[in-house]
Specification:
Length: 249
């Protein structure tokens, strides 16, 4: 049985002092032993958030990293820094990074390989635009993203990874994919992993849905056979995140 994983993606929100306040507000609300709970926070909030989350079930993740260990890359943050700070998860290839910061499937692949080298678990984002959905190429597009993302990744590493399926048209729009749409793509992603690796790897890897997840949509989404939790943006900054984490209570 795969354990559910529900991650907040704070994006570019919360100053360090606000981050501590938010962790303190949410920590009694996000207790659910059936779920791995992760808060992916801005780089500057990582250390105070880890401090504030000590002794709780909350794990702190990063929203991005570079694909080198160290060096002359002004402004970037390395996986060694994240690992040393106590980070376990890192979002890789969010559609906002692809759109505004020129990330490509190739850099996503390099980052995934580097994350594993440092013992970090990547939360690997994929998703189609509205135009691609209307063109009927959603599954082809997602399969291509997955195949490039997992190049040179071993089966053992892949089994430990998390994939977040996030249709771009559903992010921050309040327009959540239907349960059937989300399940269809998550099932196709699992089939693609089985094709690249084997049935065991596909059965083990965890696949999240993301895009306008709310307390009202979470219960139906997260019980689908191929949806193992969610990546939650806007609603992860509010007490409602507690309801999302406790979708099964
Ligand atoms: P949203 O963001 O929940 O605000 O739509 C999800 C995400 O971008 O990860």
């Amino acid at each position: 049985m795969r354990k559910k994983i529900i991650a907040g993606n704070w994006k570019m929100n919360m100053t360090p002092s606000k981050a501590v306040e938010l962790v303190n507000t949410l920590k009694p609300l996000v207790v659910n032993e059936d779920v791995d709970v992760v808060f992916c926070v801005p780089a500057i909030d990582i250390i105070p958030a880890i401090e504030a989350a000590k002794g709780t079930n909350i794990q702190i993740g990063a929203e991005n990293m570079y694909f080198k260990d160290s060096g002359a890359y002004t402004g970037e943050i390395s996986p060694a820094m994240l690992a040393d700070a106590g980070v376990k998860y890192v979002i890789i290839g969010h559609s906002e990074r692809r759109e505004y910061f020129a990330e490509t499937d190739e850099t996503v692949n390099l980052k995934i390989l580097k994350a594993f080298e440092h013992g970090l678990t990547p939360i690997i984002c994929c998703g189609e635009s509205l135009k691609q959905r209307e063109q009927g190429i959603t599954l082809d597009w997602i399969r291509m993203q997955i195949k490039i993302a997992f190049q040179n990744v071993t089966a053992e590493q892949a089994a430990s990874a998390v994939i977040a399926y996030e249709p771009i048209w559903a992010i921050g729009t309040g327009k959540v994919a239907t349960t059937a749409q989300a399940e269809e793509v998550c099932a196709a992603i699992r089939a693609c992993i089985a094709e690249i690796y084997d049935a065991d790897t596909a059965e083990t890897i965890r696949i999240q849905y993301g895009g306008s997840v709310s307390a009202s949509s979470a219960p139906e989404l997260f019980v689908q056979p191929n949806i193992d939790g969610g990546l939650v943006g806007g609603a992860s900054l509010k007490p409602d995140f507690g309801k999302i984490v406790n979708y099964n209570k």
